[in-house]
Amino acid sequence: MVRRLLAVLITAGSVPLTAAFPAFNTPNSVDAAGNTCPLVNRSGLSCPVLCVRDFSDCPDALQPPSKCAADEQLCDDGACHRSCDAVENPCLCGLAAADVGATYKSCPVYAGTVTVQHYDPSVKQEQIEFACAQEWGLVSSNATFDRSDTGAAVWAANETASAMWGDCPLAQDPELTFTESFCLAFYGIIGAEVVLYLLWHVYKSIRERHAARMRRVCSQSPTTAAGEQPLMEKDAKVQSGTSSIDIPMSIGGSVPPASRLPSGVLLLRGFKNDVAGTLMYCLTLLSTAGWIVLLAVIVSDYYGTVRGGVAYGLLANSNTSMAVFIFVWHLAAVWLIAMVAAKRRLRNYFRIECALPMANVVQVEEREDEVIMTQGNQNRLTELVSSVRDAAVRRFGLDVVAESCAARLAGRHRYFEYRCTRYVLSDKTGSFECHSFVLGDTHRSLLECRDGLSTAEAQERQAQIGENFIGVFVPSFPVGLMQELFSFFYLYQLMTMWVWFYFNYYKMALVQMGVILISANIKVFIRLRSERRIKGLAERRNRCRVRRDGAWVELDTAELAPGDVVAVEAGMEVMCDGCVLQGEVVADESSLTGEAMPVRKLALKRDDIAYDPQSSSSKAYSVYSGTRVLQCTGSAYAGAAGAGIEGGEPQTQVLVLRTRTGTDKGKLIQRILFPTRYSFVLDEQLRVAILILLAYGGVGFSLSIWLMGHDLTSWLYGTFVLSQTLPPLLPAALVIGQSVAADRLRRQHIYCVDLPRILCAAKVRVFLFDKTGTLTKEGLEYYGVQQIAAGQIAGEQQQDMQQLPAHLQIGFAACHAVADLDGQLIGNPVDVEQFRQTGWRIQARRGDAHSLDTLTSPDGRTTAHVVRRFEFEHARQSMAVAVQDAGTGHVHVFVKGSFERIGQLARGGSVPADYDATAAAWARRGCYVLALAHRDLGAADLGDVGRMTRAQLEAGCDLASLLLFRNNLKEDTAQAIAELRRGDTRTVMVTGDTAMTAVYVARECGMVPENSRVLLGESKTPADEIQWTDADTREPVGDIQPCLAELGSDGFPTTELAVGGAAFERLCATGEIGALLPSIRVFARMTPGGKVECAKWHMRYAVTAMCGDGGNDTGALRAAHVGLALSDAEASIVSPFSSSRRSIGACVALLREGRSGLATSFSAFKFLVNYATTMSMLEIVQFYFSVIVPQAVWIMVDSIISVGLLLAVTQARTARRLAAGRPTARLLGAHTLASIWGQTAINYAFLYGAMALLFAQGWFRCHEFDSRDIDTSLWWLLGDNYEAEVISIVCLFQFINAAGVYNYGYRYRRAWATNYLLVLVYAACLAVVSAVTLADPNRFGCLFRINCGNTPTVRALGYGAASLDVSDYNSPIGHNVLPRRFRWTLWGLCVANIAVCLAYEKLVVLGPVGRRVKAWWAARHGDRKLRLKL
Questions:
Q1: CA neighbor of 732 nearest in space, from 1237, 1210, 1325, 1230
Q2: Could you give the C-alpha distances from 667 to 207, 223, 1290, in angstroms and in order?
Q3: Interval 518-555: pLDDT, tens
Q4: What is the mean pLDDT of the segment spanning 745-773?
Q5: Per-residue model confidence as pLDDT tens digits over 774-795
Q6: Residue 191's CB: how many other CB atoms inside 10 A?
Q7: Which are the contacts of 587, defined by CB distance < 8 A and separation ≥ 6?
Q8: Most CB atoms closer than 10 Å: which of 537, 1027, 1127, 1425?
Q9: Range 1276-1287 burial, b when 16+ CB lie within 10 A, else e
């Protein structure tokens, strides 16, 4: 079958070359006036050998030497040699003397050339012989040409005439019989492989006939074991991780494919190794390399490097070589495509699927969802293609990722690790499950675990969840490069380059391969550098003291397991999530939260207080992996003097709750290593654009085959057209703009970890901002205290706290969570500022079990002991302390929190009637308002106080004061907000602060217009109705719709809305949020979860960005389309962008660079598409005339222009101001298509106009290129003519000008001339091409074979050129020098082409014409774009 296929190809390649002929005109048929063309004279032709019976018969011009040297003799070739034995007689034409009718000798070779009158390609050989015979006097000079009488006989083996021409018949090309040894070896290898693969498949099918029933599913949510139970009981309490998964089973009870499983559910398939399968896998790898080697051998044979410099020494002749190359090229492409598509599953195909308990390898399959950002920006075409693609994805499971994980043993447990999480085989379900341990849910239950674990328990738990170490594999650079290259994108480039290498275009293939490999190396370098950074973040371990088997031992932190008790020392890095059992800890959590202020951690209380490590109320008792201990209670060990570390009991102890990926840091690492796949609308439309270009290339491919003669050579030409219609650099073009923008952002201290989000930043319409630390300065400034007594509020605030009543001084000195770290106050910035204003001091502990802190007044007369402390909780919005006054022995309870919460908590009679109005008035003035409530328990027993619940202590408190702080704006906040609004970006505040303060800040920074009315919506709980009030007058508003119906001059409501956290939840629950969202400017009292929901709601309507600075913003930063963390902490990695500038000016810079990056990416994309359309146009036109532009022109286009100008286009500088609008993200939008196809139409028109102008020239007609006597496979010889010259000049100008056209910045990049690199390269290229076009013949122009020719011919034309040092012209007239007048006319036409293209882009696409058309279309069909109030 292989032989038959090759025979068909060879037959196809044998179509006569004369088929490559213009379809609609005959060259040199008529002149410009319509008259029949006379045949032209052709000079410089060499004469064939003349064979005579005796040397005396040679003409006088060809007489052999009359006498040879003494040691030489005259041989049959007409020359003197020392010996004639090895001299070949050219007249025998390779035959033996006995095989010819008569013995002929060769006259000496004629050194001169002749001119043929009225040259006719159809009888060119006879005309040359006749001209030579006239030159030598064999035929009368007056004789007329007669093809039957050329002065000598035609060569024949049996000829006996006195003279005959030595024009030996063309030797028959050697034939390949396909029975040669290497062919038989190829058949044998292919046949053996086919048989082996069939046998393996049959064998595998038999062994796996029940495999479908052996598959299992597994949830990624961990199975929980109750940690406080005995070990055997814990195992009994492990619940199946699959029992709660609703899986639709297939017929026969087998598990359905992964594509039909819910998200988060894994399909597990077990495989075991097989010797035969391993051998087959090795054979597959060898076969893959074999196809590459085979292509290399065929290409090498083309260049004659296989057999001693003989071209086609292996494959016999050109036709056979092309047929074999095309055949092998297609087979190799199919094989490599299959290998790339199956690379994740290939190894397991050569294993035997088995039950999971018997597996050596577990194949984990998971449906990977893709988030498409800005999904609404699609048209009907893209929606159709997306629907077809989605159907194909569902049908063939293309959204399923498969990963092979080695199954190992740990003790008695069999496990594998997938994405840094351990899955252990369950004896009950026969499937693998991941586990976690819950040691308790209250403080008391956790304190009962203080004895730690036994070695057996620790080993058992570690076997189930893995060692406390996250290993990150970073491949070596060669391996990483192979991973990068083994993809469809590079496969397409590789197969394209093979065609270029084969078709004698190796110089440009090397250039393109160099560019591709350099870009791949850069990409791999950046990826590996990022992975090493993550590796350094993840792979952390040290030594620590752990209680095991009742004793303290030193262990590696990798050996920790949930339930271990660890001794904490100052300076150590925490390697697990845990809770403080004993002592206190001051921790630096900036690596996780971004908050620079150290945090104080307290010991668990002997109480039934609920403990949830994820809740804010429990964070005060929790330490987290990746944080560093700055100080702890007694960093030494308490014990007998001199006992040292080994002999004492640590004063500060932490219970290990979670390890590995169960920790917050572990989850962070997981999110970084395995991020959610995001697809920008541009990526979706790129697929459609590639399909369109492929279809366009398919048309060009078909036309090439038709125009170039329907032979094998035409297939190669068609492949050229296809490869250049879809340029290999096209996918990289969109990345270049992102990379340039990322580099510019980095120079502004804005760092990007997700390049595609830069393009998303360009489309941001709504920017959400946290307030404190983001819009305002990091800290709050103390403003004063307003006392409340007997239900009355004091008239003015008190600035000096030391002038307050004694109980208030104690309250403000004690109601906080501030700690003293070597003289530095640490804790919440508000608490620190509050405590600093009191002037009190925190003393060393007195050793009393009931005392948490001891405080002394500035004068040292008053001492107070903190005996109970309840940390601030977001849910309660308050904190509480119980303080004993050492002087009186009274115990005072103080509760501090938001004024709303304290007002609800305080005893009704103590709350003034104007309390809310007063607090709101302060808030409207920009104050951060807290309230303090007080209760005197008298000389209460401290033990009784210790047993009271928080609710009991807080009950009956009296309102004591308002505590006021000012949160001032950062210096550049107002300016940045104003620029964002000018840039058509809506700004919204999402804060945890009070609504009134937030409204004040929003007005002060310009987020709320100066004269706008603000309505505030609040409710006590999400279940209560929302009460709307005027934020300024506090007057209730029953119905807000009439207010929203009042429109301003801009067509938007003049009223802005602000809502509290509870009101937001209410609106979400009732569904009203959708209608009101565009009118809500301020979201106040928002929890971290509320911020996430707020971001998600905005994302439904517009591309949304979030900017924040602290850990409570992390969720929203990660959820939004674009997140910018004003932090340089490790936690900021979860945000696509981070900045150490800590200024929202970074938001403006991000949008400016994003818009510039998107516009630049589109410019690069349009430049390459223009390159593709111009190239296809060039090739189709040249193929019509059977000409090929000179090789130097190809090299200039494919290297300097396509690569150099592409890079120069991306260097356009970013606009200084944020433009009022966003660049398009639609590759198939009207704006983009109008630009691309408009430029294409203009270029087509000018190229055809140039060719029409050429055909109108009298000096050209009757000198047209005639390919009937040319071998079209020798493409580098088809450019020495006027047609190829004019096509080259026009298209060179068009290629260059595309960069100038797409350098226009519109509103997102600076002026055209500020891209200095492009201006330099653009001007230089135009100057070079102009010089080549206009100059008289010279050596530089001859490099391009433009305005050049053979030196004698050029001199005969009147150009006094020195030797042009150029190879002989493949043209009847010996030159292609254009007349000077025509050169200037052609140059003017090219300049007009440039001007029209530039004017079309500037005035029509980007200018007033385009804007009017867009406005007309919107007025006629409506503008579907959502309008937002800025």
A1: 1210
A2: 40, 17, 59
A3: 777 777 887 788 788 788 878 888 889 999 998 999 99
A4: 85
A5: 888 876 788 899 998 888 888 7
A6: 11
A7: 574, 598, 599, 601, 623, 624, 627, 628, 629, 630
A8: 1127
A9: bbbbbbbbbbbb
